[in-house]
Amino acid sequence: EQFTDLIAESLSKPKGRVAVELLPGQRITHGGSRNPVVIVKVESIGALSSDDTIRHTQKITNFCQEVLKVPKEKVIISYYDLAPDKVGVNGSTVAATRL
């Protein structure tokens, strides 16, 4: 729930619009090492300008360091800016519900 709160606050989105999938125990190597690594994929409609992603990256990385004890060089974040007509929810697209 802490991570959901962090993402919702950083993206300025309601918590109800934030989905978090945690996959602990995955076998991931990064840089040839099996030390813990965190891979974060952020998909959002808006809130992903260059300045936004820098701010989000700082917050996510700090969270991973402080709460998960994962060093910052082992935190990898990818951002995907989604078009409202490409996201379906509640039986329609986000674009259609905005009409």
Automatic annotation (TrEMBL):
Instruction: Give the InterPro entries listed for this entry.
Output: Macrophage_inhib_fac, Tautomerase/MIF_sf
Question: Which GO terms label this protein's molecular function in UniProt?
Answer: cytokine activity; phenylpyruvate tautomerase activity
Q: Name one Pfam family in it.
A: MIF
Highest rank taxon of the organism: Eukaryota
One cellular component term from this protein's GO annotations in UniProt: extracellular space
* Record-stated family: Belongs to the MIF family.
Descriptive protein name: Macrophage migration inhibitory factor
Q: Which organism is it from?
A: Parelaphostrongylus tenuis (Meningeal worm)
- Lineage start: Eukaryota, Metazoa, Ecdysozoa, Nematoda, Chromadorea
